[in-house]
């Protein structure tokens, strides 16, 4: 699941959107049982999501369940550990104990249901000061943790910050999640939703920023945002050509007995080459 950029929320109670989900070009679908579903629709939403997952088995399907402290958590989980589910997004993840508890529950349900490929992943959603403070412990709590994701709306509410277009109030949290992910040796995190679906310019600006910070992709809430994320995270032709030229020059330098060279007036060593190779892998030019 490395390289997935667009993670599209699909409201679990919206029959029309659940039916349409399979036609979306998002890398990952997240069927939402939390914020998008009112309390009196939770049971209905679980049933609808199970049917949607069975219908869209060719997709990468995750389910966002309610938090461990929620009265809906147990039913969410027991309903969703099923064939066709790639992973669970845990709302308001705050401690390693929550991740371990979730891991054990998934393992027990997989064994009880004799699932052919018991490999359901966990994506903790960091949405509070405590969750951010414990991010490394959360990330390293279980081999099931694939990567973390950031939820800015609840996070800003928790720390009593004002959400702004430039996102300065979120910079520290975003950087901490990237660093904790790297230190825990899991995949790079996925950034928060951008709620103004009409502001394409602002969305592109924010997506470019989070790529620069080290995020791997973004949570999206509207189909129009999918291609915008891909546009940012797919290397341009110019980047690909520059990377190819750099790698070739470095390999030629190695053949001549030197591990460092100058190219276009810039010093090139192994870390620079590794970045170029990463660009080529993202573009599909190099294999992993």
**Helix/strand order:** EHEHEHEHEHHEHHEHEHHEEH
Termini distance?
13 Å
Helix content: 40-55%
Rounded radius of gyration (Å) = 20 Å
Describe this structure in words.
Helices cover about 45% and strands about 15% of the residues. It is built from 12 helices and 10 strands. It has an 8-stranded parallel β-sheet with strand order 6-5-4-3-2-1-8-7. The protein has a two-stranded antiparallel sheet with strand order 9-10. A hairpin with a 2-residue loop joins β9 (about 260-265) and β10 (about 265-270).
Topology:
Elements: E1 6-11, H1 15-20, E2 28-32, H2 42-55, E3 61-65, H3 73-80, E4 87-90, H4 96-112, E5 121-126, H5 129-133, H6 135-139, E6 149-150, H7 152-159, H8 171-183, E7 190-191, H9 200-213, E8 217-220, H10 224-233, H11 237-255, E9 261-263, E10 266-268, H12 270-282
Parallel strand pairs: 1-2, 1-8, 2-3, 3-4, 4-5, 5-6, 7-8
Antiparallel strand pairs: 9-10
Helix pairs in contact: 2-3, 9-10, 11-12
């Amino acid at each position: 699941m490395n390289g997935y950029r667009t993670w599209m929320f699909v409201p679990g109670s919206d029959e029309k959107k659940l039916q349409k989900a399979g036609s979306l070009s998002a890398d990952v679908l997240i069927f939402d049982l939390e914020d998008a579903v009112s309390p009196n629709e939770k049971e209905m939403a679980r049933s609808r999501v199970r049917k949607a997952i069975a219908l869209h088995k060719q997709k990468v399907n995750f389910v966002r369940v309610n938090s461990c402290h929620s009265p809906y958590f147990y039913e969410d989980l027991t309903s969703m550990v099923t064939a066709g589910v790639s992973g669970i997004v845990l709302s308001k993840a705050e401690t390693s104990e929550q991740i371990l508890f979730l891991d054990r529950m998934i393992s027990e349900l997989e064994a009880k249901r004799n699932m052919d490929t018991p490999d359901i992943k966990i994506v903790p959603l960091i949405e509070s000061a405590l969750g951010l403070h414990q991010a490394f412990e959360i990330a390293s709590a279980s081999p099931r943790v694939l990567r973390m994701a950031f939820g800015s709306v609840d996070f800003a509410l928790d720390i009593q910050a004002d959400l702004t277009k430039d996102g300065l109030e979120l910079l520290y949290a975003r950087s901490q999640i990237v660093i904790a992910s790297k230190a825990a040796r899991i995949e790079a995190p996925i950034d928060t939703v951008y709620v103004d679906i009409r502001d394409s310019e602002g969305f592109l600006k924010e997506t470019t920023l989070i790529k620069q910070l080290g995020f791997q992709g973004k949570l999206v809430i509207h189909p129009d945002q999918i291609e915008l994320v891909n546009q940012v995270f797919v290397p341009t032709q110019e980047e690909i050509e520059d990377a190819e030229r750099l790698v070739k020059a470095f390999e030629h330098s190695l053949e001549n007995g030197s591990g460092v060279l100058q190219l276009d007036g810039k010093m090139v060593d192994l870390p620079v080459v590794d970045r170029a190779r990463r660009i080529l892998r993202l573009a599909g030019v190099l294999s992993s």
